Model the fold of this input.
Amino acid sequence: MIAVAAGTNRIDPYLIPALDGVAYGLLVFVAASGLVFCFGVANILNLAHGLLYAIGGYTAAAVLDGGWASLALALAVGVLAAAAAGVLLAGLLTPVATGNHLSQALLTFGVALAGGSLLVAGFGPDNPQVQVPAALEGSVMVAGHRYAAYRLVFIVVAAVLAAGLYLVVRRTRAGMLVRAAVDDPEMVACLGVSPARIRAGVLAAAGALAGAAGVLGAPIIGPGTGTADTVLLLSLVVVVLGGLGSMAGTLLAALAIGEIQTLGVALLPSAAPFLLFAAMAAVLAVRARGLAGRWRTA
Amino acid sequence: MRGEVIRRVRGGIAALVLVGLVVAPWVVDDYTTSILARTLALALVGVSVALLTGVAGMPTLGQTAPYAAGAYACAVVGSRISDVGVVQLVVAAAAGALLAALTVPLVVHARGVIVLMITLAIGELVVVVLGRWRSVTGGTDGLAGIPAVRPFWGLPALASDQARYLYALVVVATLIGAVLVLLRTRAGLVLRAGRDDETRLRASGHRVALHLSGAHIAAGAIAGAAGSLLVVAQQYISPADFGFDTSALLLLGVVIGGTASVGGALVGAALVIAVRDWLFGVLPGHAPLVLGALFVATVYLLPTGVSRARVRLRPPGAPALRPDQPATHDQATVAELHR
Done:
């Protein structure tokens, strides 16, 4: 793609990677927002979050057959399956829900390990191929360059999803509870909302988001043995970079990661392995205290 | 009186284990000996995890980062510059300490679960870098054919599995002895006091961030040295040796052993690694499933919460430990500091 793009002027060759970066960033945003909720609202470090994405990805690989109906079906099945897995996880977490992060980390890691193994047992060790709807197979022209139609549509869909998420969190009662629970969990408990129900709801929502990201993002970060780890890592970096409770921060961090992963590789191929690390270090070094201060440190 | 008995029994067990470890290579076959040597290296990383998690109160999922830095530094030095073990150890420890020092600004102001997240991200990013920085690390293929180490100038190269194992045992025993001595000094007391009551320690004029930085760098050096032992044991390394699962396993081992005790950390880490290696042998393909179930079971079986596993040792029904109660032997108080 870069070879096709080269030659017209100095900005042109980087247009396609930059666009790829937007797609990648939005995908990471949708996946990571679940982890942010989980940690911010239920105060749970969910190391099985990548597994929820992988469930969506494998669903996409199993269900998609090139038609639009199969895409709708894959989306429904993937979202439901990942949300159900989230509820299951909430149930498993009940005995260690109050406070002890070390136990939560070990428990969710155990679930990730076992669940990943079950996925590989069910779908085989090879990375499956994902078939997008035939109408999105081709490429379209963007400013004189060919660009994969699916990615363009993905950018639009993910942007709509992100906007919807923003509206839900800002404007609905559920969203208000979510924000209130981040600020003052005791007060929300006083309102008569059971913490166990909040936890189950949040993990289900996190699962649904990760499942949707897994289905739609399958052509970008496809299902495979390393998927869960990759998505968990990217989500963690987004949480670390974006801070908590701020949707805008999360989105900004996700887009930055997308651009680093695509534009960064095109611009500075030799430094590419270090860019993500350097970005995280730079942000944290500049505002480490502020970041830590905004987080509940219990 | 009871404490004295417990201490003697514990000392006796430690001595027995040490004797067992020394004679082990003549009892078991070469393959098991090389696994034992690798387990020793990982147990040493476990000690550095215990130092951070249990003693300093910074739970870490990223000690594979300085471990990897030490291992790769040692591998590069070993194949290009020197096959002298002391040199490799010093270089590896320095590499681990350097990486830990670079990441100090990231972890030292955070607490609790934030440290878990940040260290996890650091560990994973280091694995990504190892996989892509092909010119130095050999990428995902790893580095092979690292020459056998000679412990000191003028000594012969260690050609057998037994010799390499004994070298690792001597190094691990020495370093752990050093850690135990260090923990008995004032620095160890300050670290534990900070873990138990940071506000009071800060109020009494101690610079908590400085002490935590020191602990982080020291733990990095220990993990780095352990990395050089891995190179000695395997003569081959790849990014797969430093994955996220290794970090989580080490943390689980340390938690099982009791986070605040160095001996417990050693036993726990060795146990967990042994179970993993044994499972991979008897259940090809299904080991992660069983291992994951084991994680979940462990968390449930330590009901008071794994980070306080040692509290379980008190008789049932005894009141929970509170800051205003007399400290047990592994609880430091700020008051103790001012005696």
